[in-house]
Amino acid sequence: NSGVPAALVYDRNDRRYVQPADPLPLNQWSHLAMTYDNNAGQVTLYANGGQVAQANWRADSSNTDVFTIGRSSCCGEYFTGRIDEVRFWNTVRSQAEINSAKDSELTGSEAGLIGYWRLNSAPGGITKISGFNDPYFIAIAADHSVWVSDYYNHQVVHVAADGSQELARIDGFASPRGITVAKDGTVWVADYGLRQVVQLDAAGTELQRLEGFSSPITVRGQTGTGAIWLTDYGAGEMIRLGADGSEEMRHGGLGNPVGLDVVQATGEAWVTDYTNSQVMFLDQQGNELLRASGFFRPHHLAVDQQDGSAWVADSSNNRVVHIMRDGTVRHVLTGLYRPLQVSVIQPTDGDPTLTPPTATATATPNSGDAPLTVTFTATATDDGSVTEYAWDFDGDGTFDATGANQSHTYTEPGVYHVILRVRDNDGLYGYDASATVRVTPFVIKATASPTTGTVPFNITFDGALVSLPAGRRVVAWQWDFDNDGAIDFTSTDSPRHTQRMTTAGTFSALLTAVDDQGDRAHARVTLVLNNAPPSAHNYTTPTSGDAPLLVNLKGAASDANGSVVLYRWDYDGDG
Which terminal residue of the chain, N or C, has fewer Cβ atoms less than 10 Å from its own Cβ? Predict the structure, then answer.
């Protein structure tokens, strides 16, 4: 709006702007402050310490919208410029108080100050590069140059490391999304619109264009093998390609997978299933190691390469979740609004003059029947000295013991992903998450898709062996779908079965496998089954006429899962 500052308030259905007549000067810093005095019912706007606008207004206490700076929730209104020194107070600041503090930083302990962001931490300068139309993803090459998928321009753009120039702008795409730089320096692009995956060389020349996809979104490379992982949103699949583009694995049964990242040390992969509101963890062969619920339309995620855990942008829950390899939730970051992307700063992203230690863990033995006592040995190399060794024996994110040499007894069958953490004299950490301990007699896993819905609906149950002693075989698979203790399905061939669920509730479906020695293994999957809401109909007679108008209202309703217990009317539709 031509440089005129404005406080935008909502009065139920009305949008009101509290703003002065004159714009702020362009290309120079200005100080803005807005106060709301609930007792007086006034909104006041200050510019550079002086009052420039004021209006009477009462806050709508039913409004739960997020407070934003620099944009409105509609109408294409966006701030253009730079923002610094953001402060929130729970008191109405006077003009004198605002004017006296506007030109200096605060201590952070001032009375009434409840939020303070100095925004001083960004190193160096910022280079802004124009010419894009909704750039979607970026990938950084070994020489620090940047590849950008320019979604609405239907192009892929290569930008110099310092942002000073475009090195290449490649056509021939239709809504490119995911992009990654492979181990050999080639660039892989998920061409969402053309339903293809494209490989470019380091100069941007097309090397190959692969078919057989529906809606590819995210691509990630594995540095060790050169493999390329990708999610196909429309087909409900996660796919792994070899370095030459040959298909190595295709894992289906997903709703609409979006986010993907790879544990570089092991080749395992995390993926978000947007439609089923789940996060999955797969091994290098595509076998499910974990299917975690409790999310709501998760978008993208990022792996912490130190321990193989994942940070998930749980978009519709307005949070970011840190989940360990075994499904343990370690951290939940709230106070966000529809987060879509997340990134993890790895140890090598810090001070280039400091080198983190390299850790190596060994486990002896690494398999056997419970109770199994395992001896762990740690070694490390560093440019200084190693000051601490720490062990997480079950991969849940909690470190259970310290010391280079440790032993631990596993009493329950399972597959345990051990994490070694070492710290050096510079305070830097190194990790090794490659050690795995398999405790027999044998271990299975259980899956279900979908795991939530409105009854009645069909759920496909499945399972798989994780480990089984040599020479043994499974002779029976048994499902107890509603955890009532009764076996609902038995098969000698496969645990896969489709069951129609008709009762609402939260159930822990139990899968049991029996081997030819009579040993049993168990695994569970949680189901959340919801009742269908009642259907309502209303009839009015007459529907029009002169005031005063007497209208007869008649309501009808039905409930497939029970009975209707209450009718309520809103005569004027005001909520």
Answer: C
Structural tokens at position 284: 């290098």
Distance CA 151, CA 440 (A): 50
pLDDT of residue 352: 45
Exposure of 569 by Cβ count < 10 A (0-12 exposed, 13-18 middle, 19+ buried)? exposed
What tens digit of pLDDT does each residue of 341-363 get?
Answer: 999 876 554 444 457 788 899 99
Q: Is the pLDDT of residue 407 over 50?
A: yes
Q: Name the token pair of 464.
A: 């798989």
**Distance, CA of 387 to CA of 554 (rounded, Å):** 77
Residue pLDDT, tens place only, 77-100? 778 888 889 999 999 999 999 999
Comparing 266-280, 411-425, 536-550, the range with the smallest average pLDDT is 411-425
In CATH terms, the fold of domain 7-117 is Jelly Rolls (2.60.120)
Q: How far is CA 529 from the centre of its chain?
A: 24
So what's the pLDDT on residue 71?
75
Phi and psi at 567, nearest 5°, equal: -120, 135
| CA dist list (Å): 470 to 466, 473, 491, 518, 519 | 13, 8, 22, 15, 14
pLDDT digits over 460-518, tens only?
A: 999 998 877 777 889 999 999 988 889 999 999 999 999 999 888 899 999 999 988 78
Handedness of CA 453, 457, 458, 464 (dihedral sign): positive
> What is the C-alpha to C-alpha distance for residues 296 and 283, in angstroms, rounded to an integer?
24
Architecture in CATH of 135-348 = 6 Propeller (2.120)
Closest CA to 272 of 339, 209, 214: 339
Q: Which two tokens stand for residue 549?
A: 């108008």
pLDDT band at 145 (very low <50, low <70, confident <90, very high): very high
Nearest to 277 by CA among 228, 230, 313, 234: 313
Short-list 357, 350, 378, 348, CA closest to 425: 357
3-state secondary structure of 430: strand
Instruction: Give tens-digit pLDDT for 522-552.
Output: 899 999 998 888 888 888 899 899 999 999 9
Give the other-Cβ count within 10 Å of 379's Cβ.
15
Q: Are strands 452-454 and 520-530 parallel, antiparallel or unpaired?
A: parallel
Instruction: Compute the average pLDDT of residues 188-201.
Output: 96
Domain 349-440 sits in CATH 2.170.30.10 = no
Predicted confidence at residue 350, as pLDDT, reads: 45
The amino acid occupying position 504 is: A
Residue 348: which residues within 8 A CB-CB, separation 6 or more?
Answer: 356
Nearest to 154 by CA among 138, 132, 181: 132
Q: Which residue type is seen at 311? A: W
Distance between CA atoms of residues 305 and 303, nearest Å: 6
Question: What's the rounded Cα separation, in Å, for the pair 181 and 199?
Answer: 10
Please give the structure tokens belonging to residue 323: 């989940």
Rounded CA-CA distance 38/214 in Å is 54
Q: What are phi and psi of 169, to 5 degrees?
A: -135, 110
Instruction: Give the max Cα distance, the chain.
Output: 90
446, 330, 462, 331: which is closest to 395 by C-alpha? 330
- State the pLDDT at residue 312: 97
Sequence ranges of the domains in the chain: 7-117, 135-348, 349-440
